[in-house]
Design a protein that fits this description.
88 residues; alpha+beta; four-stranded antiparallel β-sheet; two-stranded antiparallel sheet
Length: 88
């Protein structure tokens, strides 16, 4: 798992935000194309909150076409790339 730079993932008004310059290339997009695809509803985002031994952790997953990327946020706020779960 590659650790992301500090400030790449944060919460704003209770919602998770990921720097588009981090996630966009992982989905094969530019930051501006990522923003546009988000506005158009072409990118699916999932937030999973950890339970039991994973309590306090959060996994954010983004899917665009055949591309998928996920980040795990630890209770201390650090974040790292992780393997996206299989689509359902």
């Amino acid at each position: 798992m590659a650790t992301l730079p500090e400030g790449s993932v944060w919460q704003e008004n209770g919602e998770w935000v990921v720097d588009p310059h981090i996630v966009a290339p992982k989905l094969g997009l530019s930051a501006e194309s990522f923003r546009q695809a988000m506005r158009e509803g072409l990118i699916a985002g999932t937030v999973e909150r950890g339970e039991q031994e994973d309590a306090g952790r959060t996994r954010l997953t983004f899917r665009y076409g055949r591309h998928a990327w996920a980040v795990q946020v630890e209770p201390d706020g650090t974040s790292a790339e992780t393997t996206p779960p299989k689509p359902r």
